[in-house]
């Protein structure tokens, strides 16, 4: 009962507070050491010095009518929704955008089968396995080292590369495109399909589940 | 009957305090592990708060916070440095709740919907939730943690005070 501040005088109470504060500092210090060690040991741990967002650190949801919006010719940002805003921001970074009709043309182009046209799925393995554009390569921009060996040679040989993720306000396709550009893939070959797998599937287009070229196709609403 | 009133009251209080400590411990371990097992998802969610332009700082927060929560949860479960742990968690919970509220207000403004209709994954380890519910949960967590900070939950603890009294 001695360290119960409600039972003691003012000096004892101050002493009790300082003890709690000291204990807090101790918990914070040991906890931080534990946390960084656990992250280091964990196979899923983050690399502290890696820039996971080469396309930019800031990703806030801003009011649509904000004055901070970038100035891109021919774009009325004041009427844009977040997904469209993201598409406009990609354009601003020099990334070329692709829409569904053009994507479909490429999908049915004979060069697609020969890897002269390459689709890159910039989502994690779990989402890729659940469904991707048939023939698309898996490339998680947060674990690029796992995919470079497969994806880089294909991208180097290809004529056009289309990168996509989930769509909406997902900007992993942007990160993947910037990452590929940073390792030497020419910018003119790179396109971002901002509608992503969501728009693709919503249009009733085929979705492949499991591994690339598994042949397991499904259509939305099936 | 009078004897029970004298004894049963404190016993009930002690029991609820210990149960609260264990419950909070389990909650923090669960929420921490949820994030620690999906660190990239947590990193992306944390990025949405626009806390910093430094990726080193953002990576450090995303790497450390989940495991730090697990650590605090373990201390609560074991009953080690309970008040220090409680104060640490209050220091984390209060500003984080402020950030969640700020982001909810931004979303509300961007989507032009009512405040309680705002639903998003705040990175708390419980997935997408309606903001009013999330704020109520956080308020409850702060309240219960503050209760432990006041010195409750001593029973069945390994070392309630990690720093011994000098007097």
The number of distinct β-strands of chain B equals: 2
The overall pLDDT average of chain A reads: 82
Shape of chain A: elongated
- Element order of chain B: H for helix, E for strand: HHHHEEH
Tally the beta strands of chain A.
Answer: 7
pLDDT below 50 for ≥5 consecutive residues: which ranges of chain B? none
Which quaternary structure do these chains form?
heterodimer
Indicate the proportion of strand residues of chain B.
Answer: under 5%
First-to-last CA distance of chain A:
67 Å
Poorly predicted parts of chain A: 62-80
Topology:
The complex is a heterodimer of chains A (222) and B (167).
Chain A: H1 10-41, H2 82-92, E1 96-97, H3 100-108, H4 110-113, E2 117-121, H5 125-130, E3 137-138, H6 148-157, E4 160-164, H7 172-182, E5 190-193, H8 196-202, E6 207-208, E7 217-218
Parallel strand pairs in A: 1-5, 2-3, 2-4, 4-5
Antiparallel strand pairs in A: 6-7
Chain B: H1 2-36, H2 39-47, H3 55-78, H4 82-111, E1 119-121, E2 128-130, H5 131-149
Antiparallel strand pairs in B: 1-2
Helix pairs in contact in B: 1-3, 1-5, 2-3, 3-4, 4-5
Walkthrough of the structure:
The complex is a heterodimer of chains A (222) and B (167). Chain A is elongated, with a radius of gyration of 24 Å. Chain A has 8 helices and 7 strands; from the N terminus they run ααβααβαβαβαβαββ. In chain A, strand 2 (117-121), helix 5 and strand 3 form a beta-alpha-beta unit. Chain A has 222 residues and is of the alpha/beta class. Chain B has 167 residues and is mainly alpha-helical. Chain B is built from 5 helices and 2 strands. A two-stranded antiparallel sheet of chain B has the order 1-2. In chain B, a hairpin with a 6-residue loop joins strand 1 and strand 2 (128-130). Chain B is globular and about 60 Å long. The chains are: A alpha/beta (222), B mainly alpha (167). The interface between A and B is large, with 47 and 49 residues.
């Amino acid at each position: 009962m001695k360290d119960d501040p409600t039972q003691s005088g003012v000096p004892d109470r101050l002493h009790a507070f300082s003890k709690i504060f000291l204990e807090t500092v101790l918990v914070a210090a040991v906890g931080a050491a534990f946390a960084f060690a656990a992250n280091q040991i964990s196979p899923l741990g983050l690399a502290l010095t890696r820039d996971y967002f080469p396309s930019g650190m800031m990703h806030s949801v801003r009011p649509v009518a904000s004055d901070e919006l970038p100035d891109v010719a021919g774009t009325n940002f004041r009427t844009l929704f977040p997904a469209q805003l993201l598409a406009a921001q990609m354009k601003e970074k020099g990334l070329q955008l692709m829409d569904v009709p053009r994507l479909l043309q490429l999908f049915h182009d004979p060069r697609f089968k020969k890897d002269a046209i390459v689709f890159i799925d910039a989502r994690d393995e779990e989402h890729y396995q659940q469904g991707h554009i048939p023939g698309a390569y898996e490339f998680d921009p947060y674990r690029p080292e796992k995919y470079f060996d497969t994806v880089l040679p294909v991208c180097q040989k290809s004529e056009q590369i289309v990168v996509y993720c989930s769509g909406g306000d997902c900007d992993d396709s942007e990160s993947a495109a910037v990452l590929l550009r940073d390792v030497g893939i020419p910018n003119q070959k790179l396109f971002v399909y901002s509608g992503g797998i969501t728009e693709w599937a919503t249009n009733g287009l085929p979705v492949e589940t499991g591994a690339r070229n598994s042949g397991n196709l499904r259509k939305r609403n099936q | 009957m009078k004897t029970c009133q004298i004894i049963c009251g404190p016993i009930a209080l002690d029991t609820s305090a210990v149960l609260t400590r264990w419950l909070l411990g389990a909650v923090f371990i669960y929420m921490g592990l949820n994030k620690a097992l999906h660190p990239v998802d947590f990193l992306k969610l944390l990025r949405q708060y626009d806390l910093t332009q430094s990726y080193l700082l953002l990576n450090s927060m995303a790497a450390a916070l989940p495991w730090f929560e697990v650590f605090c949860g373990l201390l609560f479960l074991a009953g080690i440095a309970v008040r220090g742990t409680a104060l640490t968690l209050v220091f984390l919970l209060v500003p984080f709740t402020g950030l969640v509220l700020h982001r909810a207000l931004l979303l509300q403004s961007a989507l032009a919907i009512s405040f309680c209709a705002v639903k998003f994954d705040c990175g708390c380890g419980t997935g997408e939730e309606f903001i009013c519910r999330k704020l109520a949960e956080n308020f409850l967590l702060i309240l219960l943690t503050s209760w432990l900070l006041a010195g409750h939950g001593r029973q069945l603890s390994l070392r309630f005070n990690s720093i011994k009294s000098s007097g």
